[in-house]
TrEMBL record, chains A, B:
InterPro entries: Glutathione-S-Trfase_C-like (IPR010987), Glutathione-S-Trfase_C_sf (IPR036282), Glutathione_S-Trfase (IPR040079), Glutathione_S-Trfase_N (IPR004045), GST_C (IPR004046), GST_superfamily (IPR050213), Thioredoxin-like_sf (IPR036249). CDD domains: GST_C_Sigma_like (cd03192), GST_N_Sigma_like (cd03039). This is glutathione transferase. The keyword Transferase applies. SUPFAM superfamilies: GST C-terminal domain-like, Thioredoxin-like. Keywords: Transferase. Its EC number is 2.5.1.18. One of its GO terms (molecular function) is glutathione transferase activity. Pfam families: GST_C_3, GST_N. Signal peptide: none annotated.
């Protein structure tokens, strides 16, 4: 019997969307349970860590929590096939995710800043963007993907961060042609194009 | 032929020490290469991401970077045996690490704060400590370890965070008896006791 999956997250893309991309790309069915903000205070104390996303397997027989833990787990399942060929490659791909997480923190700092907005924005555009996007562009300049020549879960993680930042900085990838090409590759995957068209719309 | 390992990190515990604990506990030999601060500016541009720790396998045949990526990789090797029994358990253990990482960020915020020191300290002691340590204490109240009844890599991650915070808040675990017992368990592991006694001393 195949595994049944339920993803529990808020009604936004946010930290749940990478997992939703993986389900879309792999063509694996799942329940996309979206918590409304008004229901969260009652639910929060019942969760293991006090946050989401959580993935429930087989009606709650097992659960896995964490915005990057879930995609890595699924990607390494044979029916998803969005990970490496062995444990070393899987760790190297997790290393790319770790780097992308630092980019995520830089983006969060930018969008949440209250004081010193000008200073943080200057740092983001002049220091963070060249550092992160420069290195990432190099990673995919040969094989077309962030890890060698294989589409993996971290490409979707990058794409979700890109969706967020391009909404406020439309020219963000102008100097990074390999990353620009990667976003086009992802958007043109038939299952992903369909998901982007059909999914619930939200600002982030 | 067995794998040869070289851990490359700075001459501090910091984000390299969890990996060093795993090598000590498993009794696996490795090269503990410690970079001096003065040598870092020249080395940094040669690294994949611009940060450490990096683990080199078989003299550089493969390398893995990231302070949590490396311990998870090693823990899941049979000769280390400090992970779960299957991919689901390994993801759940990574979920604990993800939660501990949020605690690490709260500790970093506390020790790095310049403005609003009083406010951040109050938040840490009254909000962060009960939240994180309360949940973690619950996790190990039954089986004695953070994941069920098995010593895993996240116990060492917790211990390293504890070492950091107990130096400035000696009574931090007074209300968390299961966590207190866990730290005693870890300190009394023969290989760990020897490592703590023999390792290079540093403030953090």
């Amino acid at each position: 019997m195949s595994t049944s999956y339920k993803l529990i997250y808020f009604n936004i893309r946010g930290r749940g969307e990478v997992t939703r991309y993986l389900f879309a790309q792999a063509g694996v069915s799942y329940t996309d349970e979206r918590i409304e903000n008004k229901d969260w205070p009652a639910l929060k104390p019942l969760t293991q860590y006090g946050f989401l996303p959580t993935l429930e397997l087989n009606g709650g027989e097992h659960s896995i929590t964490g915005s990057l833990v879930i995609p890595r787990y699924l990607a390494e399942r044979p029916e998803f096939n969005l990970a490496g060929a062995n444990p070393i490659e899987n760790a190297q791909i997790a290393g790319v995710a770790n780097f992308l997480q630092d980019l995520e923190h830089a983006i969060l700092k930018l969008v949440r800043v209250k004081d010193n907005k000008e200073e943080v924005t200057k740092d983001f555009t002049e220091v963070q963007v060249p550092n992160f996007f420069g290195k990432l562009d190099g990673f995919c300049s040969t094989g077309g993907y962030l890890f060698q020549d294989k589409l993996t879960w971290v490409d979707f993680y990058f794409y979700e961060l890109y969706e967020w930042i391009v909404a406020v900085m439309p020219n963000i990838l102008d100097n990074y042609s390999s990353l620009k090409k990667l976003t086009t590759t992802i958007e043109n995957l038939p299952n992903i194009a369909k998901w982007i068209k059909d999914r619930p719309q939200s600002a982030y």
